[in-house]
Request: fold
Amino acid sequence: MATNTPDIRIPDDLKPADGRFGSGPSKVRPEQLEAVMEASPEVMGTSHRQGPVKFVVASLRNGLAELLQLPDGYEVILGNGGTHACWDGLVAGFIEQRSLHASFGEFSSKFAKGVAAAPFLDDPVLVEAEVGTHPTVSHVDGIDTYALTHNETSTGVMAPVTRPSQDGLVVVDATSAAGGLRVDIAECDVYYFSPQKSLASDGGLWLAAVSPAAIERIEARAAAGDRWIPPFVDLKAALDNARKDQTLNTPALATLIMADAQVQWFCHNGGLAFSAGRSDASAAHLYGWADAHALATPFVTDPAMRSSVVGTIDFDDSVDAAAVAAVLRANGIVDTEPYRKLGRNQLRIAMFPAIDPDDVLALTGCIDHVLAELT
Reply:
């Protein structure tokens, strides 16, 4: 962010109705907060081992099964701690000996680093691509787990979810994708994510759609007894507790309620076609605007790789994108700054389903206003 924010006022009639465009935590709809209030005192402040909370967990699990159109035998499991805890669980209790990782940004590379640090696993195979693109993954002998990323939040690249091989199981990081991007779950075995992105909730929880083959792997690894698995990241414990509609430890109840409210909103309005359609509409405008702009361009050059939920827009060297973001923030339009480690002269704009496509349209009008004032 620029040290000194230019004194530029954006007219109120140009501003979006809601100025939150963060890539996580993301915008929470007012209706979700109302759902939390309506859940008190029956749910808020009560035991997560009892019926009222377990009903919310069951509703969320069933809603996700409907939203993702889970094939027969697939289940939704969940655990405390967010995606990083899920990664640790996959390292400790899922990968058998060697994994392959598609690496094309900050978050897709982090899982591979965790695997490399595990003394009981072979070094992972990395299939890498330059930031702003994604690699193509194919069969490699000796791989028991293929680790893919549906959407790279740091760069705004989305990759297809397809099985690279019939040998080995496929795990997909869908942290910023689930609910906002279309997916055929049959193409993978573990589709895991956190609720603070497209589900417009808070962090501290992970969820996953798991196949019968993944369930068999989880149970076999737990029964093998050849590794110590910390209970907090034990996928078998997560599976067993999920089947009781609960988590190992006390969850953040508001997180569950808000996530469930969002999933029910999706399902009642047409499912993934509705939720992903909202993100598609936002993305079509943002990228169309940038493609036609004299001073802006999509960072991801291949249209097929451009994310529909996180857009990254580069600016000409004559523009200080940090100053643009600072002016937007001063005018109540927040969290458009780029990912800190990418180090580009750009804005990063979330387009999760909770964000109204009309607000993305208004945002680009605000950016145009700021650019006119700055240049």
